[in-house]
Write a structure and sequence with these properties.
The chain is mainly β. It is built from one helix and eleven strands.
């Protein structure tokens, strides 16, 4: 199963980006989806997740109030709207899918995208 993350790029601090994650329909409609990120020299960390039904969302404290995760099942796509970006948000962002109803634990995710690089300049 291939997840395709896109939308990364270079942005100044305070700016916005929207990441997209395209996945097969069979995955999007019955898997919770999440975004993780990995900065250079650091471990992969949870960013946001959305349940496969009811649209329940959960965010890391570091992005709460700035990032919004959403899903469009008709387009088989999950989004991460990132506002008020900070240099510390610089990382490779990965989308992932889990058969669990909802999770912030990377080990519970079964499918991963290739990652898209977000660079925030100060």
């Amino acid at each position: 199963v291939q997840l395709q993350a896109s939308g990364g790029g270079l942005v100044q601090a305070g700016g916005s980006l929207r990441l997209s994650c395209a996945a097969p329909g069979s995955i999007v409609v019955n898997h919770a989806m999440g975004w993780f990120r990995q900065a250079p020299g650091k471990e992969r960390e949870f960013v946001a997740a959305i349940s496969w039904s009811a649209g329940i969302t959960y965010y890391a404290d570091s992005v709460k109030g700035r990032f919004t995760i959403s899903r469009d099942n008709a387009k088989n796509t999950v989004y991460l709207q990132m506002n008020s970006l900070k240099p510390e948000d610089t990382a490779v962002y990965y989308c992932a899918a889990t058969a669990a109803y909802f999770s912030s634990d990377a080990h519970q995710y079964d499918y991963w995208g290739q990652g898209t690089l977000v660079t925030v300049s100060s």
